[in-house]
Protein: Tetratricopeptide repeat-containing protein
Amino acid sequence: MTDKNQLAVTMMKEGKLEEAAKLLHEAMEDNPGDAAAFINFGNLLAAVQEYEKALRFFDRALEITGESAPALYGKGNVLYHLEDYSEAIRAYQAAIASGFQETDVYYMLGMSFYLHGDLRRALPHLQYAADKNPLDVDAKFQYGLTLAQLEQIDDALAIFQAVIDIDNQHADAYFNLGVAYSYKNNLEQALAMFEAALEIQPDHLLSANGKTQVQSLLSKRGEEGK
Structure:
């Protein structure tokens, strides 16, 4: 990476995007064969949600290098934001094959499979991301959500509880615990989870609906027991 590239990356981290863009333009003009400048400019464009433009710079970097793991990862992120999940999957898989081993690529690959509707292929990647970074609440929660949707309820319960152990204000985790306990017909525990979610987020409509349904079932159960 040239000095201008290094300085541009520093500027980007400091939020000085115009200065970074100027430096990267100069770097690309100075050395049109420097893939790093194209990758960094692609990342800059992606940061300001200029996704279509960013894609062109990642593709140019790949033309120069043949295969560049950072360019493939950046391209995958852009395709993900463009909701082209099948192409994002290909880019992330190619990034991993090219040696990109950051935990984020596994999380993003898992999310791409998840949003593409392929839960079974999403699961191992989300599990890997959650296991590699045990304090990553997003990865852990999405892993639990995928387990639940695959009806692996006991495993999902354990993961949602682990999310709450990290972040006890995670209303969606409490809600999903409520759903899981309802599925297991543990209505009292389900009600407690829905109430916990509503205490954190009073406008959590799904939890409010879950609470109403569980209260109705408990009422019927009580009447039948008389």
User: Anything to note?
Assistant: The longest helix spans residues 205-224. Residues 144 and 156 are 5 Å apart (CA to CA). The chain has a mean pLDDT of 93.
